């Protein structure tokens, strides 16, 4: 599982976040995107080193890049003075990689931050790249492109679900289940609007295919997330973390996040 998780995390660090940042307007200028890569490359290298000081130092460079990105959020608020649904979604996208960055430093150092096991910390890193950054950003793009009740609810639900899942780490499995349910509703709404609204789908065949794949994948991957959260909260049989990484994690990374962001790059480049 370690190799698979590391590859997924590298995809998030080196591809998904940089591509996503190009879809955000000048509140994240080109220079900031270059600085991101200067942190992401050491972070990617740290994944393949044994736990210890060298891995921790490289992970810390990545964490600094995620914190710098998070600091763009208050700057954006000061500039836009808006908390519209699409804005809330993009603010969430800017902030959530910092959770992954902190978790990565702790895991690479071998420190059980807040009492969480190293395995949970390792899985927190990809979760907040994809269920955090990518999901929130795509929800915001969909909301901006196709104004309507479903898209607005998606743009609210994805950040709210992500926040509840994070809170569930510290409270209990039932709060995490509630967060997973809210996040699932938001992601399914993203998929529904993507599937049905011509303003989102565009006219290019390749773009339509990418968006169709991303919408279809969400049906299966979020059902898996729900089944795991229900099992954790109730004690009922549910998929193992290894199975979740190989199905839910890989599906969301390749089928949803990568396909969605590549499609949005091919669209009219509607900037958030």
Automatic annotation (TrEMBL):
Descriptive protein name: YndJ-like protein
One Pfam family per UniProt: YndJ
Membrane-crossing segments per the record: 6-25, 55-71, 83-106, 118-141, 153-171, 177-195, 210-231, 243-264
Keywords: Membrane, Transmembrane, Transmembrane helix
Cited InterPro entries: YndJ-like
């Amino acid at each position: 599982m370690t190799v698979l998780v590391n590859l997924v995390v590298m995809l998030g660090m080196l591809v998904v976040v940089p591509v996503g940042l190009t879809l955000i307007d000048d509140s994240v200028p080109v220079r900031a995107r270059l600085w991101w890569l200067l942190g992401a490359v050491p972070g990617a290298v740290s994944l393949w080193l044994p736990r210890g000081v060298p891995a921790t130092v490289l992970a810390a460079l990545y964490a600094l890049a995620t914190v710098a990105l998070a600091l763009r959020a208050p700057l954006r608020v000061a500039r836009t003075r808006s908390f519209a649904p699409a804005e809330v979604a993009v603010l969430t996208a800017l902030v959530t990689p910092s959770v992954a960055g902190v978790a990565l430093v702790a895991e690479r150092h071998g420190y059980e931050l807040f009492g969480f096991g190293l395995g949970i910390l390792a899985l927190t890193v990809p979760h907040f790249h994809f269920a955090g950054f990518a999901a929130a950003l795509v929800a915001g793009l969909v909301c901006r492109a196709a104004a309507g009740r479903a898209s607005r609810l998606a743009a609210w639900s994805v950040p709210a679900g992500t926040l509840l899942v994070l809170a569930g780490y510290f409270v209990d499995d039932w709060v995490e289940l509630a967060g997973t349910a809210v996040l699932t509703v938001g992601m399914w709404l993203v998929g529904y609007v993507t599937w049905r609204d011509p303003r989102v789908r565009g006219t290019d065949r390749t773009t339509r295919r990418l968006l169709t794949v991303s919408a279809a994948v969400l049906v299966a991957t979020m059902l898996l997330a729900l089944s795991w959260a229900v099992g954790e909260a109730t004690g009922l049989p549910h998929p193992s973390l290894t199975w979740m990484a190989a199905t839910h994690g890989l599906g969301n990374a390749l089928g949803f996040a990568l396909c969605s962001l590549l499609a949005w790059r091919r669209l009219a480049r509607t900037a958030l």
